[in-house]
Amino acid sequence: MVQAIINVNERTNHVLNIVKAKYNLRDKSQAINIMAEKYEEALLEPELRPEYIRKAKKIMKQKAIYVGTPNNLRKIIGLR
What we know:
- The chain is an all-alpha fold and 80 residues long.
- It is built from 4 helices and no strands.
- The mean pLDDT is 90.
């Protein structure tokens, strides 16, 4: 376990107290750990969920569109 002394502003302290109360935690260290876990789940490389794998396989089966040059791409999507 790593120990750290941190400085937080009043709003962050308030949020930590809310998380602490919501999850019935003993201290703010546990609240920070919960927040880090939730952040990891939401924003950092999530596990591939089955629905995502199905969607990716469906996309991979689609026929590719040859674009060629950036100018051709602009024509295809109607920017010219």
